[in-house]
Write a structure and sequence with these properties.
The complex is a heterodimer of chains A (293) and B (212).
Chain A (H helix, E strand, L loop, with lengths): L48 E6 L14 E7 L6 E5 L8 H12 L4 E6 L8 H14 L4 E4 L9 H13 L3 E5 L16 E6 L7 E2 L7 E4 L3 E4 L5 E5 L1 H18 L5 H11 L8 E2 L6 E2 L5
Parallel strand pairs in A: 1-4, 1-5, 2-4, 5-6, 6-7, 7-9
Antiparallel strand pairs in A: 2-3, 8-9, 10-11, 12-13
Helix pairs in contact in A: 1-4, 2-3
Chain B lengths: L9 H21 L3 E8 L4 E9 L9 E3 L3 H9 L3 E4 L9 H6 L7 E8 L2 E9 L19 H8 L29 H4 L11 E3 L5 E3 L4
Antiparallel strand pairs in B: 1-2, 1-6, 2-3, 4-5, 5-6, 7-8
The chains are: A alpha/beta (293), B alpha+beta (212).
Protein name (chain A): S8 family serine peptidase
InterPro entries (chain A): Peptidase_S8/S53_dom, Peptidase_S8/S53_dom_sf, Peptidase_S8_Asp-AS, Peptidase_S8_subtilisin-like, Peptidase_S8_subtilisin-rel, Serine_protease_KerA-like_dom
Keywords (chain A): Hydrolase, Protease, Serine protease
């Protein structure tokens, strides 16, 4: 959606400053407000490309709808080469289908793409996840849903670099926090939108004032599509994540020029627990509200 | 990792006994129909039943299935636990695999067995007892009878909402320790089975009778 370069080298000579250039040289068109200042229509995710990096997505599931493209990461057992290839195999266990279904019901008009990083042989699981995520970032998807993480620290530096690259390239990685208290990646990085579960029945999201997990979404007893065109109910951060990914798709469809940091701020401002409460006055014992500010 | 599901060496018998006690206790704690431990055979890319308690106990040990398949496969590859309900109504979750074990559960909990970032296998609990407060049934307390529930716990079965004081919380496992803050106030629950005589503290952990 964005067109910002993702390279790490300075564009004009070896400087990171704006030497010799002024504001007119770096114009940034901001998103227009809604026409006539009226409230915007409900955004549906139209025009936003979302990639589900998971176990694949079942084709023709009625609760998922069209899957624009399906890919699989394959590792050659002999050469060790890792490639991303088109596939028609759908989903190997149901997890990716569940994530895609939650994205679909949250942002019904978005484009869903799938890259399968699970379901093949175990060797190099972290490597395959890495390759799938790297591929998704290179394809410049607007939103990448990653309800997975790796506990293997040797992948952490490369994942960190990839997450930062996605952040500046306007590919928003929405990453699930691990369900158990272990160190894993990339959800720990500030350049992704990290998601855990809350226990409310309602579909809402919360901001966590105590990161590293930044947002909570509905992840308990969630009805999700599963293999064979059916549904099940399940629990876990994996299912809170696509809800937030769907919200990102909706926001981006209404505000296509948003950067990743603006998007994170939009999620913060719209979180159910973020309120403009009366501010405490500097005078002890005195409080005032925000009505005149 | 594993080359054979059978136990030949002297240490294997001790390991089998340990795994069997794990699944027996897991099944007892959750009041479940079955519990099992499958370990990963990386070479064959298969999961192998190593210990089973309850349904399938007589014949499942040693049986193998593809490691990338089904919920256990996802848990093994992702290293994440998973809780699923309504499986039997939705027969496709990998019914062929479930039927090969001659038991199709309605619900299951699966957790990875992890050692130093490596997934060794999967611990599963099939059909944990609804009586013990699974949130999928309602916000019930496994010890409080329905007539006493509101008065004693303040939970609301009709709306499935926890009381405002936050004393109730359905956790990921949705087991009977979902009452997180006020066990003694709520029901004074005591454990059964192998933990008879123990009670749960506010943190959900068992405490032996008489212990702080």
């Amino acid at each position: 959606m964005g067109t910002v370069g993702t390279g790490t080298a300075p564009g004009r000579g070896l400087t990171w400053s704006l030497r010799g250039r002024g504001p007119d040289d770096v114009p940034v068109p901001a998103d227009e407000g809604p026409p006539g200042g009226l409230p915007a229509r409900q955004a549906t995710g139209r025009g936003v490309r979302v990639c589900v990096v998971d176990s694949g997505v079942e084709l023709d599931h009625p609760l998922v709808g069209p899957v624009e493209s399906s890919w699989v990461v394959v590792k050659d057992p002999e050469s060790g080469a890792v490639t991303v290839e088109p596939t028609g195999t759908g989903d190997t266990c149901g997890h990716g289908t569940a994530c895609a279904g939650i994205i679909r019901r949250t942002a019904p008009d978005c484009e869903i793409h799938s890259v399968r990083v699970l379901g093949e042989r175990f060797s190099g699981t972290g490597e395959v996840l890495m390759a799938g995520l790297r591929w998704a970032v290179e394809q410049r998807f607007d939103v990448v849903n990653l309800s997975l993480s790796t506990t293997r620290t040797r992948f952490a530096p490369e994942l960190h670099g990839l997450a930062d690259r996605a952040y500046f390239g306007r590919t928003v990685i929405v990453a699930s926090a691990h369900n158990t208290p272990v160190e894993s990646f990339p959800w720990r990085f500030a350049s992704v939108i990290s998601v855990g579960s809350h226990q409310e029945d309602d579909e809402l999201h919360l901001y966590n004032p105590e990161p590293p997990v930044e947002f909570f979404g509905p992840g308990q007893n969630v009805s999700v599509p599963w293999l064979g065109g059916r549904t099940i109910r399940t629990t876990g951060n994996s299912f809170a994540t696509p809800y937030v990914a769907g919200l990102c798709a909706r926001v981006l469809s209404g505000h296509p020029r948003m950067t990743a940091f603006q998007l994170k701020n939009a999620l913060y401002l719209s979180a159910a627990n973020v309120h403009a409460d009366p501010r405490p006055s500097t005078a002890a014992g005195d409080t005032r509200d925000d009505s005149e500010n | 990792m594993l080359t054979s599901p059978s136990f030949h060496a002297p240490g294997d018998a001790a390991r089998h006994e340990l795994l069997q006690s794990v699944v027996d206790v897991a099944r007892a704690i959750f009041g479940a129909a079955a519990s099992s431990v499958c370990l990963l055979d990386e070479e064959a890319d298969e999961l192998v039943f190593q210990a089973v308690s309850g349904e399938g106990e007589a014949f499942l040990v040693g049986r193998r299935f593809p490691a990338g398949r089904g919920i256990a496969g996802w848990v093994a590859t992702s290293g994440e636990p998973m809780v699923v309900d309504d499986l039997s109504r939705n027969s496709s979750f990998d019914r062929s695999l479930a039927e090969s074990t001659e038991y199709v559960p309605d619900a299951l909990m699966a957790a990875p067995l992890i050692s130093e970032s490596r997934v060794l296998g999967v611990l599963e609990v099939l059909d944990p007892s609804p009586r013990r407060g699974r949130a999928s049934v309602s916000w019930t307390c496994w010890r409080c009878s329905p007539g006493r529930r509101r008065r004693r716990c303040g939970c609301s079965p009709r709306t499935r909402r926890p009381p405002a004081d936050g004393a109730w919380r359905a956790n990921a496992a949705r087991t009977h320790w979902s009452c997180s803050a006020a066990w003694s106030d709520c029901c004074g629950a005591r454990a059964e089975g192998p933990y008879a005589g123990a009670s749960r503290g506010s943190d959900g952990r068992f405490r032996r009778a008489g212990a702080g």
